[in-house]
UniProtKB/TrEMBL annotation:
Predominant location: Golgi
Organism name: Podila minutissima
GO annotation, cellular component aspect: Golgi apparatus; membrane
Highest rank taxon of the organism: Eukaryota
Protein's recorded name: Transmembrane 9 superfamily member
Keyword terms of this UniProt record: Golgi apparatus, Membrane, Signal, Transmembrane, Transmembrane helix
Family statement: Belongs to the nonaspanin (TM9SF) (TC 9.A.2) family.
Coiled coil regions, renumbered to chain: none
Membrane topology summary: Multi-pass membrane protein
Gene Ontology terms describing biological process: protein localization to membrane
Segments traversing the membrane: 246-269, 313-337, 349-371, 383-406, 418-440, 473-496, 502-530, 542-561, 573-602
Amino acid sequence: MCASLASLSTPAHAFYIPGFSPNIFKVDERVPLHVNKIFSKKSPLPYAYADLPFVCPSTHAKNEWLNLGEVLRGDRISTSDYELVVGKDIQCQLLCTRKVTAEESTLAKEFIANDYYVEWIVDNLPGATRYSPGEGLGDRLQPYRAGFPLGKIRWDKANIHNHVTIRIRYETQKEGIAIVGFEVTPYSIDQGSECPEDPVKPGLLKSVEGKDTEISYTYSVQWIQDTEVTWYTRWNRYLVKTDESVHWYSIVNSLVVMLFLTGMVAIIFMKTLNKDIGTLYSSEEEMKDDQEDNAGWKLVHGDVFRTPSYSSLLCHILGSGVQILVMTFSTIIFALLGVLNPSYRGGLVSFGLFLFVFAGAFAGYYSARLYKVFKGTSWLKNAILTATLVPGLLMSIVFLLNLFVWHKNSSNAIPFGTFFALVVMWFGISLPLSVVGAFFGQRKKAIEHPGRTNQIPRQIPEPIWYMRPRYTIVLGGLLPFAVIFIELFFILKSIWEDQYYYMFGFLSLVFIILLVTCVEVSIVVVYFQLCDEDYNWWWRSFFVSSFSTIYIFLYSMVFFTKQLSIDHFVPGLIYISNSLMICIVYGLLTGTTGFISTYWFLRRIYSAVKID
C-alpha cells in the first residue's frame, strides 16, 4: 500500500513502505527500547543520549547500523537496559542510581535551559508526548510531539526528568500484537535511592544546580490495546496538521503568477513573433532598408549565438544544475510513491545523495554538449571540473562547518568514516560517471545554431534604464520567489523545528509551477533584452530565475530571527551555512531551468527566420 499519486494531502495509509509488514510480538516477548539523541528547537546541535554523563549507562550497549541519512542528521541509536515485555505492566522499576559531578550537573542544567528533548525508539517509532497531556488518554487520535523533555525549569531551578511512564499502544493480530503507539510521560522526582509508589504525585522535584548530586532513574510501563489506530496509520499521530486551505492558497497564488507569465509568453508567440516571422528576409541589404519595421531581436541574428565570456565556467555550472534537476525530480517521485516517509529514518537525505551521485552522468553529458558548442578543446578537463567545482565548494563548506561541530562534541558531527565514504562516492562514482557522460556527449554532433555568427561583434546600444541587467535580474527573480514563499515556510519549520514534512503532493505541484515560472520569466526577459538589441543573453538567462535564491536566503534570515531562538555562535553558524548551501543548490536548479528553456526558445525563433 502506498501513497496515491493523485492525492495532495497524505492519506491514512501513506506511510507504509511497499513490501514491508508489521513486526509481530508474542506475549512475554521482550521488545527492545533504543535510545537515540537529544535535540532542541533552540539549537541545531543534537547530542547522543547514550554519551550523556548524567544518564544511566547501558550494561549491554550496542550501536545500531545507521544509513547515511541517519548519520548526517545526527542519529546515534544504541540499545538500552529498559525492560519492555509484551503484556507485562511495570510499576516504578529502578534503572540505576547515578552519581553526577558538579560539572556534569551544570551540563544537564544547560541542556534543560535550552529545551532539549529526548528521542527514544520502540519498533521504529520515536517516543512521543501528547500535545495536550491534560486531556488524558480519552482522545486517542490526539497528535503526538516527537520526543519528551529532558527536564523543565520550575521555580527558577532546572529539574531533570528522572522518572518516565512508558505507554505502549498495540493492536491485536492473529499471530500476536503490533505496536501502534509509543508514549512517554516524564516526571521529576526527588526520591533519593527509593522508588516512590505513586510517581504521578512526586512531591519534591529533582533539581540539577551545578553541584555534586545523586540521581535515581526509574520507569513504569503500561500496555494499552488500541482499537482506533492500526499499524498502517500509526505515523499519522506524529504529523503536525496544518490547515490545507493555506496550502491551497499557496497553489492559487503560484498559479496566478504563472498564468500571468504564460499570457505574456503567449502574446510573444502568437502576436509579435508571428508578425515578425511573417516577413522573411533574403538579404542583409533588405533588412537594413526595412530597419524601422524590423523587430530588434532579428537585428542581432549574427551575434545572438556568439560564445559568451567565461563559457567554460558556464558549462560547469549548468552541468551541476542538470545533475540537481535529475536528483530533485527523482526524489520527489520516490516521495510521492510513499517510499520516503517518516518510518524510513534518514531516507530523504540518503536517496537525495545517492541520486545526486549517479546523476553525475547527466551532468557530464550536458556539460560536454554545451562545451562542444563553444568549441572547447579539452572535454576531459571540462568533465572533471564539472564534477568537482560545485560539489567541491559544498564539501569545503561542510568540512569547515564540521570543525566547529566536532569542537562541540555534537552527534551532528560527521564521523571520519562517513566523511571518507562521501569522498569515495564523489571521486569513485560521481566523477567517473561524469567522465562517461562527457565521453558520450562529446561524440554527439554539435548543436547547430540557425544562421552564422558575425566575425565583428555588433555594437550594443545604450539600453533603457529598466532593461539594464541589474533591474531585469532583480525584478525577474521576484516572480519565482513569489511562487514558493508560502510553502517555503512549512519546509523551513520541518527542517529547523524537527517536524515531519509530509505534504509531498502540494510540494510537487508547487515545484512544477516553480519550474514553469522560471522557464517563462527567463524567456520573457531575454526576449525583451534582444528586442533592445542586447545579445548578451547567456548568463542573464541563468541569473534571472536563479536570483530568487537571494530572496530565499533573506527570507531564511527573517525566519531565523522571528521563528527560532538561536542565540549562540556555533548553532547560528550552522543555520547560516546550511541555508547558504541550500540556496546554492536551489539557485543552480532554477538557473539551469531558465537557461535550457531560453536556449531552446532562441533556436526555435531564429530558425523560423530566413536569413542568407
